[in-house]
Q: What sequence folds into this?
């Protein structure tokens, strides 16, 4: 349906460290809209390959942008 909602978070992983929460809707990764879980994985993989990713989330009525990066 073109909406990617976070269903689970694994502790000590990049999404958890960035503050992403279960129920957040991912609206963009570095300005690009994911339309499926697979496209979200691709966008994150490509962004994290060269640095951090700015992930925009819809949390309730609020838009939140978090920085997701791989651990050093």
A:
């Amino acid at each position: 349906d073109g909406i990617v909602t976070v269903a689970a978070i694994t502790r000590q992983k990049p999404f958890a460290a960035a503050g992403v929460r279960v129920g957040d809707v991912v609206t963009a990764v570095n300005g690009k809209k994911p339309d499926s879980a697979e496209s979200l994985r691709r966008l994150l993989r490509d962004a994290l390959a060269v640095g951090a990713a700015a992930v925009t989330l819809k949390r309730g009525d609020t838009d939140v942008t978090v920085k997701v990066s791989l651990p050093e």
About this structure: The CA atoms of residues 6 and 33 lie 15 Å apart. Strands lie at 4-5, 25-29, 53-59, 62-68.
